[in-house]
């Protein structure tokens, strides 16, 4: 650990902090239907889309209709993407001549990109044609992110309105999220990436002659455009197999910085947008503070653990002055590797600039634990916000029990119905993660896919289902996941993590929107104070710690103490 490293991390979060308010205010105007500086250009385009689709932007939906629209749109997206992948050999822009993707892998990939997970059981440069990358994967990088934003907006309106029956129009929210927010920012970031050296071409590859005189084929493609929306939409799927550790996806320290800022900005700004739209900016800042406390703590623990080096290698005489550099890029170093790992797992991004499976036991546990907390730090675009609101509902319920009052959040009384929906949502994650991990740790053909014996092998399985259910998409490495068992079960886990969580959230929106929004009284527990932030952080930690500690104790925690003792497995 070094002062320079901490200054790099501090500057990163300062940049994001400065971007939160202006972008949050802009999005609040967009989602409220107000005029913005982009309206003269994009307004006619937006109205044209509604006309072509037969959508009346003034007609709103109840929560059931909204949820049905989300499911219908996602199902159609899954079917169309599956078809593109299976028919890849017959579609254009396939200069490599790649065949169609196998059925189980096509299912896994289609589910992955539709659910904003972007788990990849394949090497992008050796499996996907340019058409599949652009018309299939990149399109869903936009619309899956926009779907998450839309669902967060539905819950936001539930807190804004009184005695209402509607939570918005999904098709309008989807269109505005894509057209006014994701697309303009993706164009700007893609141009910046091209300037930094990322390829943006329809060529398949170039041939280079190495210093030894051998010929080497270097894969190319439309990388910059996919990389931009991958990070802005917290998607995480890389064009290349090694993701942001590849020099064509992340060539310099500056591009690494832009990657992390792009990941954080929209998700964090949406929390401010929430505060602006409900008329209480302090509430937005309170949520941001809770997210920041846990995320910065995660960065610090990973940085500390990796900077200590690997005790086993130190005992063998290896100089650990640079810490544990196995699986890391020297151009980024410990600090920016730790920041990237914590941010990508505190979000539901999943992009990586190092191999998490090469971290120390404790350093590898923290990214896994950040995902298990519910992907709310600040989580995926949209999904992080509604996930944090679920935890806030649980927190005010606990506060209500302590002070003997009916719990309230932003003037809406939280009653038994909302609590049942909230608990249904949060229990989906451990149910999927722990059950699938248990089966995979017992079935011989599933165990044979791990790359390392002992606790690290269990961590590989646990990390995979944590990542899939949390709609993250990063991998621990070592697990050979491209098999019918893992492709199918990981796909099911992704669906549960996305829709098993989101449908109860929309049900909460439907329940709250019909209630009266009351003004705060002297007996109301304030939810924008440091006391509430501390309570919220505690609820998040307890929900994660109690559910997953036994599994973590058998995996990365055992590995950590074994490394300290100089033991290998």
Layout of strands and helices, then pairs:
Blueprint: H1 3-31, H2 39-53, H3 63-86, H4 103-114, H5 124-127, H6 130-160, H7 170-196, E1 205-209, E2 215-219, H8 223-232, H9 253-277, H10 281-307, H11 311-315, H12 333-346, H13 361-372, H14 383-403, E3 408-409, E4 412-413, H15 416-442, H16 444-447, H17 455-469, H18 484-513, H19 530-564
Antiparallel strand pairs: 1-2, 3-4
Keywords: Cell membrane, Ion transport, Membrane, Potassium, Potassium transport, Transmembrane, Transmembrane helix, Transport
Protein name: Potassium-transporting ATPase potassium-binding subunit
Transmembrane segments: 6-28, 63-85, 139-159, 179-198, 257-274, 286-305, 385-403, 424-447, 490-510, 531-549
Summarize the structure in words:
The chain has a domain at 382-565. Helix content is 64%, strand content 2%. It has 19 helices and 4 strands. The protein has helices spanning 3-31, 39-53, 63-86, 103-114, 124-127, 130-160, 170-196, 223-232, 253-277, 281-307, 311-315, 333-346, 361-372, 383-403, 416-442, 444-447, 455-469, 484-513, 530-564, and strands at 205-209, 215-219, 408-409, 412-413.
Number of helices: 19
Write the element-wise H/E pattern from the N-terminal end onward.
Answer: HHHHHHHEEHHHHHHHEEHHHHH
General shape: globular
Q: Mean pLDDT, as a whole number?
A: 90
Instruction: Summarize the biggest pleated sheet.
Output: 2 strands, antiparallel
Q: Share of helix among residues?
A: 55-70%
How many angstroms does the end-to-end distance come to?
28 Å
Task: Please give the oligomerization state of what you see.
Answer: single chain
List unreliable stretches of 5+ residues: none
Structural class: mainly alpha
Strand order of the largest sheet: 1-2
Rg result:
23 Å
Number of DSSP-assigned strands: 4
Percent strand: under 5%
């Amino acid at each position: 650990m070094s002062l320079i490293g901490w200054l790099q991390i501090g500057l990163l979060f300062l940049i994001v902090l400065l971007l939160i308010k202006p972008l949050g205010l802009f999005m609040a105007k967009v989602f409220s239907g107000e005029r913005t500086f982009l309206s003269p250009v994009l307004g006619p385009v937006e109205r044209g889309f509604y006309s072509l689709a037969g959508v009346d932007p003034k007609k709103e939906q109840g929560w059931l209709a909204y949820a049905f629209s989300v499911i219908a749109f996602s199902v159609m997206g899954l079917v169309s993407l599956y078809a593109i992948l299976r028919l890849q050999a017959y579609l254009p822009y396939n200069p490599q001549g790649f065949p169609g993707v196998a059925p189980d892998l096509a299912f896994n990939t289609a589910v992955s990109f539709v659910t904003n997970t972007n788990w990849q059981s394949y090497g992008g440069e050796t499996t996907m044609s340019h058409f599949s990358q652009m018309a299939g994967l990149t399109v869903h990088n936009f619309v899956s992110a926009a779907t998450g934003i839309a669902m967060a907006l539905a819950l936001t309106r539930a807190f804004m309105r009184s005695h209402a029956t509607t939570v918005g129009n999904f098709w309008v929210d989807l269109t505005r999220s894509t057209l006014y927010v994701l697309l303009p920012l993706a164009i700007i970031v893609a141009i910046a990436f091209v300037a930094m050296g990322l390829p943006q071409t329809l060529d398949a590859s170039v041939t280079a002659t190495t210093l030894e005189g051998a010929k080497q084929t270097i894969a190319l493609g439309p990388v910059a455009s996919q990389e931009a929306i991958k990070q802005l939409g917290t998607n995480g799927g890389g064009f290349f197999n090694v993701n942001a550790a590849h020099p064509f996806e992340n060539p310099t320290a500056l591009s690494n910085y832009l990657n992390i800022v792009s990941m954080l900005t929209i998700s964090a700004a949406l929390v401010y947008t929430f505060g602006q739209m409900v008329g209480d900016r302090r509430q937005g800042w309170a949520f941001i503070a809770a997210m920041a406390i846990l995320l910065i703590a995660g960065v610090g623990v990973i940085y500390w653990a990796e900077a200590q080096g690997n005790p086993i290698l130190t005992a063998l005489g290896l100089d650990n002055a640079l810490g544990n550099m196995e699986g890391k890029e020297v151009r980024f170093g410990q600090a920016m590797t730790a920041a990237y790992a914590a941010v990508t797992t505190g979000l539901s991004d999943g992009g990586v600039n190092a191999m998490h499976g090469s971290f120390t036991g404790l350093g590898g546990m923290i990214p896994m634990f950040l995902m298990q907390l519910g992907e709310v730090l600040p989580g995926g675009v949209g999904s992080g916000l509604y996930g944090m609101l679920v935890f806030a509902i649980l927190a005010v319920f606990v506060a209500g029990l302590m002070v003997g009052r009916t719990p309230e959040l932003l003037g809406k009384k939280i009653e038994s119905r909302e609590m049942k929906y909230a608990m249904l949502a949060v229990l989906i994650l451990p149910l999927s993660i722990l059950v699938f991990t248990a089966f995979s740790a017992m079935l011989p053909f599933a165990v044979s896919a791990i790359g390392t014996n002992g606790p690290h092998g269990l961590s590989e399985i646990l990390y995979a289902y944590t990542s899939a259910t949390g709609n993250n998409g990063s991998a621990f490495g070592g697990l050979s996941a491209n098999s019918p068992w893992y492709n199918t079960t990981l796909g099911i886990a992704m669906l549960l993590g996305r829709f098993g969580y989101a449908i109860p959230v929309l049900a909460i929106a439907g329940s709250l929107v019909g209630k009266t929004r009351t003004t705060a009284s002297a007996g109301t527990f304030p939810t924008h104070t440091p006391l509430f932030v501390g309570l919220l952080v505690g609820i998040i930690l307890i929900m994660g710690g109690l559910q997953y500690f036994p599994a973590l104790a058998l995996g990365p925690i055992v590995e950590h103490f074994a490394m300290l003792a100089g033991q290998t497995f």
